[in-house]
# Entry
Amino acid sequence: MKTNCRSVAVALLALVLCGAATLSYAQQSDQTGSSATWNGHRHGHMEYLARQLDLTDAQKAEIKTMMQAQRATLHPLMQQMHSLDQQLKQYTEGTYDEAKVQALVTQQSQTLVQLKVEETRIHNELYQLLTPDQQAKLKEIEANREARMQQHMQGDAPATPEQ
# Structure
């Protein structure tokens, strides 16, 4: 039971710290029809963050509590994004109606704004739970991730991690 709670807390922290990952997942699963690979990748990333940040049991418990409280806010927004994506799909596979697509995309953009505001607020709350050393480590992890993304976007070969 303790291990299960720990895994849940770690998973929730990574979900929040990764920001747009939740939204990207919803969009990717709609496009590909598969979430198994994403779930495995996300779980691995969560475990990595928990180890790298060396979260205490108290931090994990507080994160779990916070995330359970936020689920009621985030879940409906993610469901709404999914629903709007499904509605848009009919216009890619059927008759195109620009006015209807425009209206759906406008709704989707408003939902995205709400989702990003909530995610940012949650990220801030979780960030405040970290010690200054953990905050510095998180910034380093994020900077390294950003550098890899920039390198990838420029088409360069990925750098091998130093041991």
Remarks:
- Residues 2-153 form one domain.
- The two ends are 34 Å apart (CA to CA).
- The chain is about 85% helix and 0% strand.
- Helices lie at 2-17, 21-32, 36-53, 57-93, 98-129, 132-153.
